[in-house]
Design a protein that fits this description.
Helix content: 25-40%
Structural class: alpha+beta
Distance between the termini: 54 Å
Largest sheet: 15 strands, mixed
CATH superfamily of the largest domain: Metal-dependent hydrolases
Shape: globular
Number of helices: 19
């Protein structure tokens, strides 16, 4: 035993017991590459290096991405003893618009200090075994987590810092084809890193081979040499997600009753700006069969009676700009009173499986309508499904139509002539077209004239005020920096009314982007602290904007909301959508913004999330209001939103597809904090 080793043992005495036995990690060397995919399209690479002497393991990771033209990177370094005990960890994102947690950990004697972005240092007593984890942990560091797990795990989980624990469930052995040979890999579901877990594959030496994870977007990380098995990894993750959904359904879905009576509640039917007091709603086989005054209505003898006295019943709400990339969105959406979503871009394999499990198997979640993400050529493209030629455009429409999609979703790299083909082909088969105004299309007007039925995001929608300018030439804050005349507004209104265009402005997301640097998310979204922590981590730990930029963003969103409000008052269909901020809370913020800045009454704001989207999607005769004969999509609130729009946040139960759910168990299932916490 050399002197250097003795000194190191003394220094680390409080970290781990030193042994003269040789560790398998002494004088170890490994390096490799993981390919990084977003929606199955490669956007970058991560290279890692693991090296050690007799005392210390050093793991370095460098990740670079070009995600839709946004170039960024992550650099990370982890120090461990050769017994795999953590000594220090540092990870930071290198980006001009950093929204990702920066984390640093150091062990000093019997104390562990953790720094997280925007928060003071937290020091805690060192646990006997722990590993530092953040939701954006690089693959090279994550691989060491699993080696550590198997070395230390005795009862199915290990504690992690700054919070929580990680558990691994072995789901079986998979055989994949690599270079024409069968390769055996072990599949696990890992909980405690990202919201809702991730599916991983390890080789027989416990080295990480592939990760499929979500949070707010699906990403695949696949070790170089295994990329041909990507379809298998995607399929495996869908299987595990559906298994999770099945588990939620078994634990949350009560015994179905053929007839249910919601007795004694106040009803906001979505047709009139009024509240009907002390009403009873009778539901049979998932449809409303009777609505009447509680003292007068006849309740069938075999009805399941639910007392909703003092509560307010409203139509189940719609989120028209969802990206529900994992099944946890299902219970979370229902908990917030959202009973229908339009998924505005997702991986086809997962999206169709999620939709069908709810529609065909009665799984717990909102009804899902699908809009198929489609983009054009180049590094700014989004996802793997591209339309770069006339033939590809036709094939894209066939693909989505054959999979039961309702719409084609246009993204920003679509070329003008291809946009027309996509729209024409979609309309031929009864699909509509929504999405972004592509960068190469001259204006929002041109996009609509080329066949787009719906437009997303206020910065693209309001470009109609400047029909002679390309969106790319207007700048990021063109609403704040320009005087908008009544003539511009009236001409824009006339144009959209003429074409019957539906607008999906995602104003709440614009509000979130006004967060000043250093301020917590709660100043904009009061329920941010209730989010599932791993989702909360990636959403709340935003770098924020400079004081000047934050103020400019605020002016921009206020002026945008004012004009959108005028569009609504003129009869243009405006639909509420969140664009993936957070289930439930993002929806409340969207409707609150329409009222606060757009001038809509609470009732009008509610309509943007009920009958207007239902009508826009051709389902207004089936749902969207509380009427006899319609589907019983009902949100049950503790307070009336017509008196205060923020009362939408008081959703306490929901009915959909004939099932009644209390919100608290739904929130808990999705790992959100209770309203009572």
């Amino acid at each position: 035993m050399n002197v250097k080793y003795l000194i190191t043992c003394a220094f680390l005495a409080l970290l781990t017991a030193c042994s003269s036995e040789t560790s398998e990690w002494e004088n170890f060397k490994d390096e490799g590459t993981f390919f990084v995919y977003r929606r199955q399209s490669q956007i970058g690479e991560e290279t890692y290096d693991i090296s050690s002497n007799k005392d210390t393991i050093i793991v370095t990771s460098i990740q670079g991405e070009n995600e839709r033209g946004r170039i960024s990177g992550v650099e990370s370094k982890l120090y461990l003893t050769t017994d795999l005990e953590p000594i220090s960890y540092f990870s930071r994102r290198i980006s001009n618009n950093d929204t990702t947690n920066i984390i640093k950990m150091e062990v000093n004697g019997d104390k562990v200090s953790i720094w997280e972005k925007h928060f003071d240092v937290v020091t805690t007593n060192k646990k006997d075994a722990f590993f530092t984890v953040n939701s954006n942990i690089p693959a090279g560091i994550e691989m060491m987590l699993y080696h550590y797990y198997f070395k230390n795990n005795s009862d199915s989980s290990i504690p992690t810092l700054p919070r929580g624990e990680v558990s691994m469930t072995h789901k079986g052995e998979d055989i994949v084809q690599i270079d024409g040979k069968d390769v055996a890999l072990d599949r696990y579901v890992v909980d405690g890193i990202n919201w809702g877990g991730r599916t991983i594959w390890l080789d027989k030496s416990k080295n990480l081979v592939a990760v499929v994870k979500a949070n707010t977007q699906i990403r695949e990380l696949i070790k170089k040499g295994y990329e041909e098995a990507k379809p298998y990894f995607i399929k495996g993750n869908v299987e595990e997600q559906m298994a999770q959904l099945s588990g939620y359904t078994k634990s949350l879905k009560g015994e179905e009753s053929q007839i249910t009576a919601l007795v004694g509640g106040d009803v906001v039917n979505g047709l009139q700006d009024a509240t009907q007091k002390d009403m009873t709603v009778i539901i049979e086989n998932g449809r409303i069969t009777s609505i009447g005054s509680s003292p007068e209505i006849n309740i069938p003898d075999n009805a399941k009676i639910i007392d909703v006295t003092g509560k307010t019943l409203i139509p189940g709400m719609w989120d028209m700009h969802a990206h529900s990339n994992q099944v946890q969105w299902g219970p979370a959406y229902l908990a917030g009173g959202v009973t229908t979503i339009r998924d505005n871009g997702n991986e086809l394999e997962f999206a169709t499986a999620f939709r069908d499990a709810i529609a065909n198997e009665g799984a717990t979640g909102p009804d899902i309508l699908l809009s198929g993400m489609t983009d054009g050529p180049g590094p700014k493209g989004n996802g793997i499904i591209r339309a770069r030629s006339v033939e590809e455009a036709k094939e894209v429409v066939k693909l989505y139509h054959s999979n039961g999609y309702n719409q084609i979703k246009i993204y920003t790299s679509i070329e003008p002539e291809i946009l027309k083909v996509l729209a024409d082909e979609a309309h031929k088969v009864g699909m509509t077209v929504t999405g972004h105004v592509p960068a190469l299309v001259n204006s929002a007007n041109t996009a609509v004239e080329s066949g787009m039925d719906m437009l997303s995001h206020s910065n693209r929608i309001l470009a109609v005020l400047f029909p002679d300018q390309k969106i790319s030439d207007l700048g990021a804050f063109y609403m704040a920096k320009n005087d908008i005349t009544d003539t511009q507004i009236n001409e824009a209104i006339a144009f959209y009314l003429k074409h019957g265009t539906v607008l999906d402005p995602t104003l709440g997301l614009g509000v979130i982007r006004t967060l000043p640097k250093g301020e917590p998310m709660e100043i904009l979204e009061p329920d941010a602290g209730r989010m599932a922590y791993e989702l909360f981590e990636s959403k709340r730990f935003r770098s924020g904007a400079s004081e000047k930029r934050a103020e400019l963003s605020k002016q921009n969103i206020i002026k945008s909301a004012e004009v959108i409000g005028k569009f609504f008052k003129a009869g243009i269909p405006v639909v509420a959508g969140t664009d993936n901020f957070a289930p439930g809370f993002g929806h409340f913020l969207e409707l609150e913004t329409y009222h606060k800045y757009g001038g809509l009454t609470p009732f009008e704001a509610l309509q943007t999330a009920t009958i207007i989207p239902a009508t826009a999607m051709g389902m207004g005769d089936k749902t969207g209001t509380l009427e006899i004969g319609k589907e019983a999509d009902i949100a049950i609130l503790d307070k009336n939103p017509l008196t205060d729009i923020t009362n939408l946040r008081s959703v306490s139960a929901v009915m959909t597809n004939g099932n009644y759910y209390e919100s608290e168990p739904l929130w808990k299932a999705a790992d959100f904090k209770s309203t009572r916490d």
